[in-house]
Amino acid sequence: MRFVWFLLVLVSGLSQAQQTAYTIPRSAVIELEDTPSGRTYPILIKLPRSYHNNGRSLYPVIYLADGHYSFQTVSGATRFPMNSGALPEAVIVAIGYSNEAKGVASRVRDYTPTKDPSWKLETGEAGAHARFIREKIFTYVANHYRVDQSQRFYMGHSLAGLFGAYMALHQPDMFTGYVISSPSVWFNNNSVLTLPFKPSQNPPKIYISVGSLETPEYGEGENMVEEARKLETLLRTLPKSHSALKMKIIDDARHATAFPTSAIQGLDWLMRE
């Protein structure tokens, strides 16, 4: 009878454990409105482990696009490196998709730098989205958290990598470092590479990465490796475009699997002294 009672208690405990959702420690979700467009975006924020015990410390900020995907990935990938001192602790700010649109419509609209009428979805609002980040999100983060404004890092993959390339080329001083993962440089006939270049006052570090299998030979619609190299070549020829530039081909990675490796290796390179 005692054994039966033990089993009942064990099963009950397992059942309760299965009903408890896991949450990312020290994280919160707020919403910010992009006033000109009237769109509202969820912003996911995670504070470093030492944040509340170090009342005077200022922290770098890592800004992520595609927030609902990238927040979990980068939070998990950086947890041990930051907690162990292998990476500097940082505030993580992930920008989600607008509440008024489906994710794919929001990202196609917000991450593409030029209008392309051949697309069924709205395109070409990267400039407006960059303004929203610069004027609204940066301001909110600076007013509510102890952050080092001189250490802002951007990370984006695919179309969000294209958005990162746009900012690195045309609004470079928004961030001190960029992780540009598998950028969709091919969009609208490589239009991001043809827009007027803006020299940087404080050239950022730029990390470009792409999976070695991101080619038509392995099922991709575009040759992402070739496109990433075009971006690298352009950046290397432009004056004051970067303080340091690294290009990484990730062995055996496809478009859908390259980002986690790009994220942690890119941050490790950007944040080293």
Q: Could you characterize what this model shows?
A:
The chain is an alpha/beta fold. It has a single domain, classed as Rossmann fold, CATH 3.40.50. 39% of the residues lie in helices and 21% in strands. The chain has eight helices and eight strands. An eight-stranded mixed β-sheet has the order 1-2-4-3-5-6-7-8, with helices on both faces. Strand 5 (147-157), helix 5 and strand 6 form a beta-alpha-beta unit. Helix 3 packs parallel to helix 5. The longest helix is centred in the middle third of the chain and has 19 residues, at 126-144. The protein is globular and about 50 Å long. The N and C termini lie far apart (64 Å).
Question: Strand sequence of the main sheet, in spatial order?
Answer: 1-2-4-3-5-6-7-8
- What is the CATH architecture term? 3-Layer(aba) Sandwich
What is the domain tally? 1
**What is the CATH superfamily classification?**
Alpha/Beta hydrolase fold, catalytic domain
Might you state the CATH topology name?
A: Rossmann fold
Structural class: alpha/beta
| Low-pLDDT regions | 6-11
Total strand segments: 8
